[in-house]
């Protein structure tokens, strides 16, 4: 007859160290996004993140240098996922204009489905530190370059040079 301790050990799966680190990193990022959604970036603390992620302070600092680096990682992950979806939507269309419309609709749908993520990417990045603001500026420049590509498309009139920045800034 097996004891309770034996049954518990049998159910435990030994995971490689790298897999454990990846799981902990994902939990910390999810907790940071959750905290930002609830209380905002300015009020988010490492203590709140580790409490939500159920990891130790040591584990947090093994993974991230500080809360800014944690938030940047969360933004990078969110933006990579959003970018992949938008690029797929853009690529399905035949012309630039339809591609941009499709990509924008996809991003707006994503924001509707994940309002906390939208808040983190659109609102809370404006409250971030220097690194967060620099990352935001880089992403906006990338988006503006996609819109700017349409200025070279045949047909229609050429919009002013600042049109891409105005469109991206109006949305984000």
Q: Which CATH class is shown?
A: Mainly Alpha
For the record, give the distance between the C-alpha atoms at the N and C termini, rounded to a whole number: 62 Å
CATH-defined fold name: Tetracycline Repressor, domain 2
Q: Please state roughly what percent of the residues sit in beta strands, choosing from under 5%, 5-15%, 15-25%, 25-35%, 35-45% or over 45%.
A: under 5%
Going by CATH, what is the homologous superfamily? Tetracycline Repressor, domain 2
Integer average pLDDT: 83
What is the count of helical runs? 9
Shape: elongated
**Major β-sheet annotation:** none
What is the alpha-carbon Rg in Å?
A: 21 Å
User: Which spans have pLDDT < 50 for at least 5 consecutive residues?
Assistant: none
CATH architecture label name: Orthogonal Bundle
Give the helices and strands as they follow along the chain: HHHHHHHHH
Q: What structural class results from the helix and strand content?
A: mainly alpha
Number of domains in the coordinates? 1
Structure report:
The protein contains nine helices and no strands. Helix 2 crosses helix 5 (67-91) and helix 2 crosses helix 7. It has helices at 4-11, 17-39, 46-53, 57-63, 67-91, 96-113, 115-123, 130-149, 163-171. With 172 residues, it is mostly helical. The chain has a single domain (4-171), classed as Tetracycline Repressor, domain 2 (Orthogonal Bundle), CATH 1.10.357. It is 74% helix and 0% strand.
